[in-house]
Amino acid sequence: MKASLLFFAILFLSLDSFAQTKVKDTILANKIYEIRITETSSAHPNPWDDGISFKSGYLNSTTLLKNHQFSSLPYTASISSSDTSTVTFTSEGKNRIGDIIKWNGTITDSERDIQGTVVITHKNGKITTYSFTGKQKVKK
After folding, report:
1. What is the domain range of residue 70?
2. Is residue 130 within 8 Å of residue 103, measured between CB atoms?
3. How many CB atoms lie within 10 A of CB 78?
4. Which pTM value belongs to this model?
5. Does residue 87 lie in a domain region?
6. Radius of gyration for the chain, computed over Cα atoms and rounded to the nearest angstrom
7. What does the alpha-carbon distance between residue 130 and residue 114 come to, in Å, rounded to a whole number?
8. First to last CA, the chain
9. What distance in Å separates the CA atoms of residue 85 and residue 90, rounded to the nearest whole number?
10. CA 30 → CA 27, 35, 108, 117, distances in Å?
11. How far apart are CA 52 and CA 118, in angstroms?
């Protein structure tokens, strides 16, 4: 009886870890977006231009990640089941200081529009929120 329980426990754990295997992204891979970011948690927001890219399973930003000492972040992307022209993505990571960043975004494929939010929870408990909008960079 104990051997059977042990066998099923090992089988369950191995299936669980198999189900969490990272799948290669084919939705956003190698796409670049030019975005405008605005700090929404500030009384005097100062918007700036930035760029985000999706490459090899990682999200990178030209300015925001570097300014807050974050490296490229792993992301997940999915296509909406109700509207196949809409893609959503999420990304989360932690910098060496202990701050946590979360990206949530939506891309409307037909227009190449992107929009979303970024929330940084600082180690000291302060929360900084941003919104962003933009378009996919067109290769010339």
Report:
1. 23-136
2. no
3. 12
4. 0.78
5. yes
6. 19
7. 14
8. 67
9. 17
10. 9, 16, 17, 21
11. 12
Look up residue 29 and give its two tokens: 């891979």
Residue 87 CA to residue 80 CA, distance in Å, equals 6
Q: What CATH number is attached to the domain comprising 76?
A: 2.40.160
91 domain residue, yes or no: yes
Q: How far apart are CA 12 and CA 112, in angstroms?
A: 41
98-109 per-residue burial string, b: 16 or more CB within 10 A, e: under 16: ebebebebebee
Question: Collapsing DSSP states into helix, strand and coil, what is residue 75?
Answer: strand
In the predicted model, is pLDDT for residue 49 greater than 90? yes
Quote the number of domains for the chain. 1
Burial of 64 (0-12, 13-18, 19+ CB in 10 A): buried
- Alpha helix positions (H), the chain: 2-19, 64-67
**CA-CA distance, 115 to 92, in Å (whole number)?**
17
pLDDT tens-digit readout, 5-48:
444 444 334 333 333 334 467 789 999 999 999 999 989 989 99
